[in-house]
Amino acid sequence: xxxxxxxxxxxxxxxxxxxxxxxxxxxxxxxxxxxxxxxxxxxxxxxxxxxxxxxxxxxxxxxxxxxxxxxxxxxxxxxxxxxxxxxxxxxxxxxxxxxxxxxxxxxxxxxxxxxxxxxxxxxxxxxxxxxxx
Length: 133
What we know:
Layout: H1 2-13, H2 15-23, H3 29-38, H4 40-50, H5 56-69, H6 86-102, E1 114-118, E2 128-132
Antiparallel strand pairs: 1-2
């Protein structure tokens, strides 16, 4: 609720930035994403969540978000620390990444079913197309 309020309060202070982001949303795909995550769409989204009486739907969505964000294969980390603390920080980071990898469920590979269908149903020896189900 605080994040939604801060975004709403920032509209008057950053109105020009919001207007530019909103105007640029139709120019490029990146502009559309910027509007979605940094523009008025984000303000409306956060306000809608803050006004929800029941957050169970949001809570059910968080593990799905975690699955994409905390993927050890795609994860990159950087540590800023003093030379005295870099060893401890690196150990903590390695432990965190190990925990993420251990808690990750392996997904079964999806097997596609490919069907070869002739273009001419009366002639099986002619050209055909492949359909994936």
